[in-house]
Amino acid sequence: MIVRVMAEGQYRLDEGHHARLDELDDLVVARVEAGDEAGYITAFSELLSFVRESGEALGPDDLEGSDFMLPPADLSFEEAGNEFTGEGLIPDPPA
Amino acid sequence: MAGTSGRFTTVIKAKINKMLDKAEDPGETLDYSYQKQLESLQGVKKGIADVVTAKKRLQMQTSKLEQSVVKLDTQARTAMGQGNEELARMALERKNVAQTELQGLDQQVTELEAQQQKLIESEQKLRTKIESFRTKKEVIKAQYNAAEAQVRISEAATGVGEEMADVGLAMQRAVDKTENMRARADAVGELEAAGTFDDITALGDGQDDIDRQLHQLSSQSAVDDDLAKMRAELGQGTPPPPASPQIEKGEGAA
């Protein structure tokens, strides 16, 4: 699967990482919904680090569309309220 | 199991669809978009230059103040040497005000420095993204010209459209940040022009009457300390007897 971190770039991740990605995404939603700003900052940066570290950056001449898109790393807590709601940005992996 | 989309994703998808709808000649659309990106990058660079200018102004202000601190200190010593404690006190009071202003200025210079650093970072990131977009657009233009399989082109168009929308988003955020910082840099220039630096740096925002009095008291005691130090240095153990009428009048009555 291909994940885009907006304003940054695209990463190709192994399908097996979907569950962990979903977990980290849900954690961000939980922190945002709890109004926990410090917790949100940690959780969101953990989510992005996971994508960067377990994925492989796509080259500049790669023209594939992304399966999932994550907001830019400098997303403020206020903005996060519009992004991380309900199921989050990563849907559950297929059963 | 439809995943919910955040606002950013929705905006990007809308932009991709818009681009695909009217992409009769994707080459032209992509080239135009690339030109716009380069223009915006210039705007960010200009923002950095403005912050640097504001910082330089503040640094000049700082060195002027440092000079007055030295001068006022010398004046106070001279006055004490002449036995004119009243005049020495006045000089030390001014020196104290200048020192407080200096602290405020130092803080502002540090803040501007940090802003400058942030802007430089986002300019570099942006430059990398624009370069990556340029590569992608050339790839898709070549594919289009070679009239390769239509399906492949439409998939690639989605990819390049996504990149285009994403560069647009990165650009928008960098431009917003730049505007904020430029506004702050402008504010520094205006303050300086209006000569209001003194008031603002001497007493920070939101201070009330008690704060002012406390500040006065502590500055008073700093001045007293300085006077005592000078007395000790000059070997005057106790306050000197009242100055002779001649010296006192020398200052005020002229």
What would you say this structure looks like, in words?
Chain A is an alpha+beta fold and 95 residues long. Chain A has helices at 18-33, 37-54, 77-83; strands at 2-5, 9-12, 56-57, 68-70. Chain A is built from three helices and four strands, in the order E-E-H-H-E-E-H. In chain A, a hairpin with a 3-residue loop joins strand 1 and strand 2. Chain B has 254 residues and is an all-alpha fold. Chain B has helices at 7-21, 26-81, 85-145, 150-194, 197-202, 209-233, 245-252. The model of chain B is unreliable at 199-206 and 244-254 (pLDDT under 50). The chains are: A alpha+beta (95), B mainly alpha (254). The interface between A and B is medium-sized, with 29 and 29 residues.
Helix content of chain B: over 70%
> Pairing-aware structural class of the strands and helices of chain A?
alpha+beta
Q: What structural category do the secondary elements of chain B indicate?
A: mainly alpha
Number of strands of chain B: 0
Averaged pLDDT of chain B: 77
| Uncertain spans of chain A | none
Tell me, rounded to a whole number, the average pLDDT of chain A.
93
Short description:
The complex is a heterodimer of chains A (95) and B (254). By secondary structure, chain A is of the alpha+beta class.
Furnish the topology, listing elements before pairings.
The complex is a heterodimer of chains A (95) and B (254).
Chain A: E1 2-5, E2 9-12, H1 18-33, H2 37-54, E3 56-57, E4 68-70, H3 77-83
Parallel strand pairs in A: 1-4
Antiparallel strand pairs in A: 1-2, 2-3
Helix pairs in contact in A: 1-2
Chain B: H1 7-21, H2 26-81, H3 85-145, H4 150-194, H5 197-202, H6 209-233, H7 245-252
Helix pairs in contact in B: 1-4, 2-3, 2-4, 3-4, 3-6
Could you name the key traits of this structure?
heterodimer; A: 95 residues; globular; B: 254 residues; mainly alpha
